[in-house]
Design brief:
There is one protein chain. The chain has 167 residues and is an alpha/beta fold. It has two domains: 69 residues, Rossmann fold; 98 residues, Formyl transferase, N-terminal domain (Rossmann fold), CATH 3.40.50. The protein is built from five helices and eight strands. A four-stranded mixed β-sheet has the order 3-4-5-6. The two termini are 27 Å apart.
């Protein structure tokens, strides 16, 4: 488990589960490329062949993306391509949508742009605020993301252009 933030809750969860972890503070690197190079090296040293991002609010450079082509997953709290980037839940509420959701996608060099692997819809209810809507989205995230990660680990996901094929 790798984090760019020393105080990330995921680090404590990893320690509790006996999972080796490391911190690479983004501010310790002179550039995004230098940071991404350090991430690539750390992932390779750990023997991993894929990256699973969660709460990682950094854009990866082309070198890191190409090193793990079609092996980097991200989760986003909207039905992409709607509301990419930060504050997706707030954007959904501001736009008055009736349905939003969660998307798991492959990472490419653009923000929340890679091929969509799986999505789940979540209704926006009257009276929803950011916290109530985000809590319902997270319920779906916590179910969907492990399923996708498991399928990727079993090589059950492939790509034909931007189209994701399961099985």
């Amino acid at each position: 488990m790798l984090s760019d933030r020393p105080g990330a809750i995921a680090l404590e969860r990893a320690r509790t589960a006996g999972i080796e972890s490391a911190v690479l503070p983004y501010g310790d690197y002179a550039s995004r490329a230098a940071f991404c190079g350090a991430v690539k090296e750390a992932v390779r040293e750990a023997g991993a062949d894929a990256l699973v991002l969660a709460g990682f609010m950094r854009v990866l450079d082309a070198g890191l993306v190409s090193a793990f082509k079609d092996r980097i997953l991200n989760i986003h709290p909207s039905l992409l391509p709607a509301f990419p980037g930060a504050n997706a839940v707030d954007q959904a509420l501001e736009h008055g949508v009736k349905v939003t959701g969660v998307t798991v996608h492959f990472v490419d060099e653009e923000i929340d742009h890679g091929p969509i692997i799986a999505q789940r819809a979540v209704p926006v209810l009257p009276g929803d605020d950011r916290d109530s809507l985000h809590a319902r989205i997270q319920v779906e995230e916590h179910d969907l993301y492990p399923r996708v990660v498991s399928a990727l680990a079993r090589d059950e996901i492939s790509l034909d252009g931007r189209r994701v094929i399961w099985g």
